[in-house]
Structure formats: structure tokens, C-alpha cells
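Batch manifest line 284
LIGAND: flavin-adenine dinucleotide
JOB: complex structure
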Amino acid sequence: MPVDVQEQVLGSIPGLENAEMIRPGYAIEYDAIDPRQLTHGLQVRRIRGLFLAGQINGTSGYEEAGCQGLIAGLNAACHAGQRDPFELSRTDGYTGILIDDLISKGADEPYRMFTSRAEYRLHLRIDNADARLTPLGERVGLVSTERAARFHLKEEQKVRLRAGLAARRMEPVLRRPEVRLSVESATEILGEAPARGVIDTVETEIKYAGYLEQQDRHVQRLRDSERRPLTVGLVFSTIPGLSREVAERLTRVRPSTLGQAGRIPGVTPAAVAILDIYLSSHAD
Ligand SMILES: Cc1cc2nc3c(=O)[nH]c(=O)nc-3n(C[C@H](O)[C@H](O)[C@H](O)COP(=O)(O)OP(=O)(O)OC[C@H]3O[C@@H](n4cnc5c(N)ncnc54)[C@H](O)[C@@H]3O)c2cc1C
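JOB STATUS: finished
ARTIFACT:
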């Protein structure tokens, strides 16, 4: 607030009528670009080789800045090494959701990551973060040999533990909330001590199996539409059935996939269905 307003507010407080303000309160201001200019790899569409991360993209927060820094840095390295860009989808992790939100919807006010922004929260759990992301990291050389070995041991134990529990018909018992899987039982089934996190993940997957399967089906459907590419030269205004407003929004954002198109504010599920049909009927 302006200094004179701050002084008035202060003076209106009983007991502070004659208080003198030594230093006024201040606001932090900073410039930001329109993040709709960015690709999923955080590269500026029109300036190849320029990657942006953090509050210049309209976000606020340490984690928001940090996760973008990882993606922008990684993609700058991929660009320099002439490798394909590294992109995360909304189902890979919260970083994927943040970037997709930013580049599809823009940021009218400083963007913060909330778990409620995720469509499939049961899928984006802390205990399976390694299963979602370590294989992607491995592919681009960001995972050390030691960490990869630890990860693969854990994954292999998870599979064996699930199979062992199924063979002993213990899964229905474990579905009951009060029943826990002990380290001793897991060790007996595996023939070795379970790696850190194995019991928790297997238990979670068994207890919430019904919900997880339902969500996995939705995730698969989302991935399919995510992947459906929109031809670069597509002229939205000529697609029959799309309202002018929707066509304008699509032209402004230029989504690269059907999934991204569906998340643009104002682009309705009906419009996405029209696009879907149009793409199917015009496929080569
Ligand atoms: C008072 C305050 C409290 C906050 N509290 C929290 C909090 O509790 N939790 C939270 O999550 N977030 C908080 N934030 C927000 C958080 O600090 C920022 O969103 C985050 O640090 C942004 O990171 P960044 O890397 O985008 O930008 P910055 O951290 O600002 O980094 C930009 C860097 O670029 C450098 N730079 C600028 N121009 C040039 C140039 N021309 N050449 C070279 N270098 C340049 C700057 O010196 C700076 O080091 C707070 C912010 C403020 C101001």
C-alpha cells in the first residue's frame, strides 16, 4: 500500500495514534514472461536454445523454481548434445503437472503447486516416486550405477513379494486396514531382507488395489489422448463444429497434443471430442 495509506492504517489503531513509521512495508515485484510461449521442455518456442525456469515463468516458491530448474537444465544439456527433449507428462509427477498447467493455461497470478491440481493423486504417491521417475532418469544418464542397482533390487523384490503373497493367499487378508505385513513375513517370502520401502509400497498397492486399478485405467486413457498429436499446421477455425471462441483459444495456445488442448481454459470436453473425431477422420 502507498506510504500515506500505511500511515493512516497505523494511526487508526488505538494506542498508535502518534506512532511514527520508520520504514514502510514493501511489496516484492518481478517481471515474468507468458509461460504459454514455452515447450514442455521449458524452451522458448521462438528462441531455440533459450530455456527458462522459476519465477520468470510466473511461478512462486522454492520447489516450483527448483523442479523447473532441473527440467530446463536437463533440456539445455539435451539441446547442446543434440538429443531429444526430456518431457514429463501429468501422470509422471507433479513437475509434469506444473509445466503442463503453465504452458497450457498461462499464469494470471503467481502459480503455486497444490496437490489438488493433480487428476490422479492416488497414482502420484511418495512411495512410488522412484518407480515413476527413476527409469526416465536412467534413460538420460541422470541416475548413478549404484542408485540404479538399488532401484532395480527394490522393483524385483516388489514383484517377488506380490507373487509370494498371492501364492500364500495372503492378499485378501492384507486388504483389511488393521492387518499389516511384518518384516519377518516379508523376509521369509523373499529369502532376504526387504529393501527400504518395499513393504510399504506392496501393502499400499494391495490395500487400495480396486481404486488404483480404476485410476490406472483413467491414466492410460489420459496417456492415449496425451500422445495424440495435433498436426503443426492445423487450422482450428476451419474445423466444423468448433466455436469461434474455442478455435481462437486453440490458435493462441497452439497445443501439441489432444490432452494439452483439453486443459486450455474454455476448451470444453465436447470441443475435445470434436477435435478427436476430426483427427481420426483426417488421419493419413
Ligand atoms: C521475502 C520472500 C520470502 C519468500 N518465502 C518463501 C517461502 O517461504 N517458501 C517458498 O517456497 N518460497 C518463498 N519465496 C519465493 C521464492 O524465494 C522464489 O519464488 C524463488 O526463490 C524463485 O527462484 P528463482 O530461481 O526463479 O529466482 P531467484 O531465486 O530470484 O534467482 C534469480 C537469480 O538470478 C540472478 N540474476 C538476476 N539478474 C541477473 C543477471 N542479469 N545476470 C546474472 N544473474 C542475475 C539473481 O541475483 C538471482 O540469484 C519468498 C520470496 C521472498 C522475496
